[in-house]
């Protein structure tokens, strides 16, 4: 048996996931059908929204100095939940990305990340 907490809504139902005699997955503890959907996704295809910070560079390609009042890192996030097993690979790619300032919230820093239908975008405007 596996225990999960459904994070689909603030109720946070405690789910128990088991298999019946026929090998069918059985979910209990959910207050609505979305809990069962959540449990299936979490077990067979877990995904997470990924947040990270990329290196910021000035328009001339140099790093922001202490006197520039600009941060050295730019917060980014995926536009949708990303397959959990591929997150380390995604972070490796993001470590190599620099973001030129100024930058607006929502600017795409990585399109179709690792071939998925998910982009990585800037989550806060900086200097824009
Ligand atoms: S099972 Fe339904 S009610 Fe419970 S946390 Fe999930 S979405 Fe909310």
UniProtKB/TrEMBL annotation:
Pfam short name (any one): DUF1667
InterPro entries on file: CPE0013-like_sf, DUF1667
UniProt name for this protein: Molybdopterin oxidoreductase
Species the sequence originates in: uncultured spirochete
